[in-house]
Design goal:
Layout lengths: L51 H28 L5 H9 L17 H14 L1 H20 L2 H12 L5 E4 L15 E5 L2 E12 L6 E7 L9 E7 L5 E6 L10 E12 L3 E2 L5 H37 L1 E2 L2 E2 L4 H29 L5 H26 L10 H11 L6 H14 L1
Helix pairs in contact: 1-3, 3-4, 3-6, 3-7, 4-6, 6-7, 6-8, 6-9, 7-8, 8-9, 8-10
Length: 424
């Protein structure tokens, strides 16, 4: 993976995270101690403005989205095939594996930088980008908990070539309730024997490596969970049919089936029983990136609506002259700008080793709900034309819906937020 020269002055910091289960809640209603910058020097306080290096990265991602993704987005959505050439091109210019430390072949950057990329790529096609963020999701537990030996053995070869990873968590009976996972990891000497079926797995059929959540004993619920790194070519691994989705259709989403798969104990991340906390910590980090993707989809729909409103005439004048349309556009802008700031705050906290459960839940919930509202209103601005595939806003609307569902539904985000408030 090539790191863009413009980013040479951005250095990665070692990030030491607290357990996802034992960090106290906010001391003030609606404001966590981390948000108040307790123990952080004034020079380190959150600043949403972008450095020249950040702007260079954003421009690189914007040009990649415009030149490589946008031209094929509609076709990829229509035929439901992932354009694998994009993975090769993104790897060559350093737009995947961004948060992996440089010494293991990644970009050595933070989640703040990855969110800048997420917004730009998702503005071109959320389905294409979802494969990138799903890969980052799968690699994040390694960034958090892998030993140096595991990083050398598992991460470094993975990053050396264009490849995608996959995070195998959801099951037919386990989604929002992570502790109800039934995929079994039975210890047998120096290996685990893995059996179970995962559902709705992004990159399921194209991943080189899976990060699998399993349990050593279903009766233990969250205390029995483990995370195992499983090469996709391991004997006993198979995939089901590709899901026919409403939106984000370019992404490969399937069942992944594990039948007596032998996984070395040395591929376990952390200790037995630490899997639940590791999953929660992973989701906290990644939610900002999913929220950034929602900002990208919302922004693209807003820009399309603005342009169309200036071109479309009714009653002998552009519809942009009508207050009803103007107010819709204004509301779109309010949501995009507010969501972007929430995203950057949540990502900044992650990069500074601070727990961001509360902030990332707010960012993900607000950005996803905003994207759904913005894309719906964009279809309304287009009128009948918005409902046909000759125009892009119906795709934005379909893509936005999934952002309210995966990586934690909007209802789960509200549950997280309310619990933080009630613990105050």
């Amino acid at each position: 993976m090539t790191r863009p020269a413009a980013l040479a002055r951005i250095t990665a910091e070692e990030r030491d995270w607290h357990s996802a289960c034992d960090t106290p809640g906010p001391s003030n209603v609606g404001i966590s101690e981390e948000s108040m910058n307790v123990g952080i020097s004034e020079e380190s306080m959150f600043n949403p403005s972008l450095s020249p290096e950040h702007k260079a990265l954003r421009e690189l991602a914007r040009q990649f989205a415009r030149n490589e993704i946008a031209p094929i987005a509609a076709k990829a959505d229509r035929i439901e095939e992932y354009p694998w050439e994009l993975v090769k091109k993104a790897h060559a210019v350093g737009l995947i594996n961004i948060t992996v430390p440089g010494k293991y072949g990644g970009g050595g950057l933070g989640y703040f930088e990855d969110c800048l990329v997420a917004e730009e790529l998702s503005a071109a096609c959320a389905g294409v980008y979802s494969s990138f963020v799903a890969s980052t999701l799968a690699l994040t537990p390694l960034n958090i908990a892998a030993t140096p030996n595991q990083m050398e053995r598992l991460m470094k070869p993975f990053c050396a070539e264009p490849a995608l990873a996959s995070f195998c968590l959801t099951e037919p009976s386990a989604g929002s309730d992570v502790a109800s996972v039934r995929t079994r990891a039975k210890r047998n000497g120096d290996t685990y024997v893995l059996n179970g079926t995962k559902r709705f797995i992004t990159n399921g059929g194209v991943a080189k490596m899976y990060t699998v959540t399993a349990t050593v004993d279903p009766e233990l619920r969250h205390k029995g969970l483990v995370l195992l790194v499983v090469p996709s070519d391991s004997p006993g691994v198979s995939v089901g049919k590709k899901e026919e989705k409403m939106g984000q259709r370019a992404a490969d989403t399937r069942e992944v089936i594990f039948e007596d798969v032998q996984v070395p104990v040395e591929n376990r991340l952390g200790e037995e029983g630490e899997g639940f906390g590791l999953v929660m910590e992973t989701l906290d980090r990644i939610r900002a990136e999913v929220a950034a993707a929602a900002v990208g989809v919302g922004r693209a729909a807003m820009q399309a609506a603005v342009q169309y409103s200036k071109e479309r005439e009714q009653f002998s004048e552009p519809i942009s002259s009508f207050q009803a349309i103007q107010f819709k556009l204004a509301d779109m802008a309010i949501k995009v700008e507010a969501a972007r700031l929430l995203v950057r705050q949540a990502a900044w906290l992650a990069d500074h080793g601070l727990r961001n459960s509360y902030e990332s839940a707010i960012a993900k919930c607000f950005a996803a709900d905003s994207a759904m509202q913005i894309t719906t209103d964009a279809v309304q601005v287009f009128g009948g034309y918005g409902y046909i595939r000759d125009y892009p806003v119906e795709k934005y609307m379909r893509d936005a819906k999934l952002l309210q569902i995966y990586e934690g539904t909007s209802e789960i985000q509200r549950l997280v937020i309310s619990r933080w408030l009630l613990k105050s």
